[in-house]
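To fix ideas, we reproduce below a protein record of this kind.
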Amino acid sequence: MGIADGTMADEAAPRGILAVANNLEQLQDGFSALDQQVGGGHYKDLKIQPVEYIHANNLGFIEGCIVKYITRFRNKNGKQDLLKIKHFVDLLIQLEYPD
């Protein structure tokens, strides 16, 4: 009995704590977070998910966003995702090469 099964002594435990505890139990049971996607399936069936590539290559936040949006634009938000990429590239140029 404990946080993960919802039997805490304090019934007013924040839902976030319960979700984290449940996720930890799933990971310990061999569950892979890469096998689950919340909000669609535009990454789940790829040969390599953007998060795996981003993590393996130690990319920063902006670079990671660019990888994420370029990977999904044809299967999710089309032109809107391309415009987001353009915005992130402009941000990266501004932050990396200030005048």
